[in-house]
Amino acid sequence: MTGKSSTERRATDALNTSMTQVFEAAGAEFIEPDIIQPADVFLERSGEHIRSRTYVFADPSGAQLCLRPDLTVPACRYHLEQDHDVTAAARYCYAGKAFRHSKKAGDTSLREFDQVGLELFGGDNAAADDAEALALTLAALDAAGVSGYSIQLGDLGLFAALLASIDMPERWRTNLRRQFWRPRAFRELLNRLTGKTAKPRTSISDLLDEMADSPLDAVAFVEHRLEADGLEMIAGRSIEQVAGRLSEKLMDRSEPHLSETHAKLIDDYLGIRCALPLAVAELRELGARTNGEFASAVDLFEARVEAIQKAGLEGGEMEFAAVFGRSLEYYTGFVFQIDRRLADGADETIAGGGRYDTMLKDIGAGTMIPAVGCAIYASRLVPVSEAPA
Amino acid sequence: MSNLTLALPSKGRLREQAEAMFARAGFDIVRIGSARGYRGEVKGLDGVDVAFLSASEIAQALRDGTVDLGVTGEDLLRETIAPDEPIVDVVLRLGFGPADVVIAVPESWLDVAFVSDLDQVAAEFYDSHGRRLRVATKYLALTRRFFADNGVTGYRIVESLGATEGAPASGSAEIIVDITTTGSTLKANRLKILDDGLILRSEAVLAARCETRSRPVVQNLKNRLELAI
Q1: Domain boundaries, position B119
Q2: Are B175 and A235 within 8 A, CB to CB?
Q3: Mean pLDDT of the region A151-177
Q4: Which of A204, A207, A226 has its CB closest to that of B108?
Q5: The complex's ipTM?
Q6: Chain A residues inside the 8 Å CB shell of B111
Q7: Looking at the structure, do residues A227 and A83 belong to the same domain, yes or no?
Q8: Pairing of the two strands A149-155 and A318-321
Q9: Which domain holds residue A134?
Q10: Is the confidence at residue A386, as pLDDT, over 50?
Q11: Best-predicted range by mean pLDDT among A19-28, A110-119, A155-164, A182-191?
Q12: Interchain pair B125, A329: CB under 8 A
C-alpha cells in the first residue's frame, strides 16, 4: 500500500474524531504533539532497546532525532513546555501517527499507524482517575462502534507493596521488582533467595573471601586493593559504590534464606487471576497472611474497583491478573489492556493504558506528577468489511 | 543457470587466510584485469564469479543480495543479519580468524562479575548521574540483541569506529563490547570480561544466501573447503 484513498482517509478521520470527541467532552484539550522528537528523551527514558523499534536519525548538526514511537511521551513533553503550573491538573487528548520498526524483517504493517489517546496529569484522586481513564477508553471504543472485546487489568503497585510487607533486605526487593518483567530471571532469583539453588563460585568469589577475612572496612579494603593492583576508579563510579555493592554480596552470603512461606506468598500472589469483582476478596485473603503494608495497596485497589463500578461499568467481564503488566515497563500502578478476537482466533490488542507516575519527573518536571492515560490503536479499528483485502 | 557471485575479503589477514584455504582446496583465485582488480574468478570452479570486498561490505552485500556467497567474519555477518532472519545460512565454519565478541568493564569495578550486576550498576548509574550507562562498540545490533535477551535495559550505545578499548579510560563510555582473541588488549587497558559476557564466539565462515544454498556448485565448494580446514 502506498497511501490511503480519499474514502479511506475520510473513514479514518471520522473514526478518530468519534473517539477524540469523547475525550474532549470529558474536558481534555485536543493537542497535536510534534512528530519529530529529540531521540534522547526516549533513549534515556526507555533505554537502548527502544531504538531498535524507533526511527532514529541525525539532523545536519548531528543532533539525534526520532519519529515519535508513541504519543504519550510527546504529550508529556508538550505539557512540560507550556507556560503554566505543570503540577496543576491537566487533561489532553490526541489523534495522530506513531512510527515503529517491526521486529520482523520486511513487515511494514506497523511502520506508521494511528494512535488516539488520552492523558490525565496531576490529578489528586488516583482511584477515580484510574477508573475514569478506563471508562473513557471504553466510551471511545463504543463511539467508534467497537464491541466484543476482552479487558485485562493489573496493578503493579500491589506487587511492590507485597514485597514491602515481607521481611527481607531492601536490595532483594529492588532486585525482585527489577526482575518482575522477566519471568525466567525472576524465578531464578527467587530460587536463589530461598536457597533452592546454590550460588555458584564466580570470578569475584576469591575477592569476597579475602574481604570477609580482612580487618579493613569495605571502603578501605577496596582502596587498598585498587592501590595494590595499580588500578584507578574510573567510568563514573565511586569507591563507595563499589565497596557498597561488595558489602551487599558479602552480606548475602550469611543472610538467612527467604522462607518457603514467603516465597509461597509471592507465588500465590502471582497466581491470582479472576473476574474483577472477585479480586478484592482474593487480595484481602492473601493480605491476611502478610504484616500489613499490603493492605493499604489493597485499599487503593478496592477504591478503584468501586470507582469503576460507579462509572457504570459492572466489571464482571474484566479480568484481573496479578502478573498482568509484566511486559509494560514504564507503568507504576494500575494497568489495563483491551483485546479483540480476530477471525483467525488470534487476539489483537486494540487499546492499553495505565498509571505512570514517575514519567513526568524523569523527563524533567522536577517533581513527581501523577499521570494516567490510554492509547488506542486506531488503525486496528477499521471495520473488517472496509479493510483493504 | 547464471553465475553465482562469491565475495572474498580484499585485504588483511582474512584475505591471506581465505586465499590460502582456497589454494589448499585446489582453487586458485585469479584477479581479472590488474593485480589490484576487484573482480576475479576461481580456477577449477565453474559458474562462480569473485568480487573482492572488505569483510564488513561482504556481510552487507549478502544482506542486499548483490552477492550470493561470501567469506567473512561471523561477527560481521551476525551484526548485519540476525540469526533468525531467513536471509543467509552459514554453510561452513572455516576454522580461522577466531575472535570473541565480549562485554568488558573496568577492572576497578571489583563488584561486577555478571551481566546481572551490570543491570544493577546501570540503575545505580542513572540514579547518581541522571543519564544512562554508555557502551562503546561497533557491534550495535549484536549488543542490543544480547542485552535485550539478558534483560539489561538502562544503557546507551556510543558508536565506536576504532580503539574501542580506550573508551572507558578516556571517558567517552563506561563499558565496551568488542572483539578479542587473546584478551591482551583488554588486559593492557585494565578491562575485564564479564563471567557471562561472551556474546559470540566468532570465526571466519562461508555464508550463502538461502536461495542459493542448494545449488550444486555451493555444495561442491563446501565439500572441497571442508577437506582443507
Answers
A1: 99-201
A2: yes
A3: 88
A4: A226
A5: 0.78
A6: 204, 242-243, 245-246, 249
A7: no
A8: parallel
A9: 6-33+68-163+267-381
A10: no
A11: A19-28
A12: no
Mean pLDDT score, A134-159:
91
Q: Do A329 and B153 touch (CB under 8 A)?
A: yes
pLDDT the model gives residue A203: 87
* Total Cβ atoms within 10 A of residue B67: 25
Specify the 3-state DSSP secondary structure of B210. Answer: helix
Same domain flag for A238 and A285:
no
Residue B8 has pLDDT above 80, yes or no: yes
Mark whether A25 and A109 lie in a shared domain.
Answer: yes
Angstroms from B139 CA to nearest CA on chain A = 13
* B112 vs A contacts (CB less than 8 Å): 204, 245
Same domain, B121 and B194: yes
Instruction: Indicate left, alpha or beta for A235 from its phi (over 0: left) and psi (-120 to 50: alpha).
Output: left
**Which residues on chain B are in Cβ contact (under 8 Å) with A225?**
110
Report the CATH number that the domain containing residue B143 is assigned in CATH: 3.40.190.10
Report the alpha-carbon distance of residue B140 to residue B149 in Å, rounded. Answer: 14
For residue A139, name the pLDDT band (cuts at 50, 70, 90). very high
Each residue of A93-109: pLDDT tens digit?
A: 999 999 988 766 667 77
- Of the pLDDT bands very low, low, confident and very high (cuts 50, 70, 90), residue A328 is low
Distance (Å, whole) CA A76 – CA A34 = 11
Contact criterion met (CB below 8 Å) for A380 and A346? no
* Residues of chain B contacting residue A179, judged by C-beta atoms under 8 Å apart: 151
* Domain identity same for B78 and B141: no
Check whether residue A311 and residue A342 sit in a common domain. yes
**A-chain residue closest to B157, CA distance:** A48
Asked if residue A383 has pLDDT above 60, the reply is no
- For chain B, how many structural domains are there in total? 2
A205 lies in some domain: yes
Yes or no, beta carbons of B108 and A232 under 8 Å apart: yes
Asked whether residue A146 falls in the same domain as residue A224, the answer is no
CB-CB under 8 Å, B123 with A48: no
Query: Are both B18 and B93 inside the same structural domain?
Result: yes
Distance from CA of A246 to the nearest CA of B (A): 5
pLDDT at A385: 41
Closest CA to A151 of A341, A15, A382, A19: A341
Q: How far apart are CA B96 and CA B13, in angstroms?
A: 10
Contact B109 A242 (CB under 8 A): yes
If asked whether residues B218 and B137 sit together in one domain, one would say: no
If you average pLDDT over residues A301-323, what whole number do you get? Answer: 84
CATH of the domain at A159: 3.30.930.10
Per CB-CB distance under 8 Å, the chain A contacts of B192 are: 203
Average pLDDT over residues A345-365: 88
Asked whether the beta carbons of B96 and B21 are under 8 A apart, the reply is yes
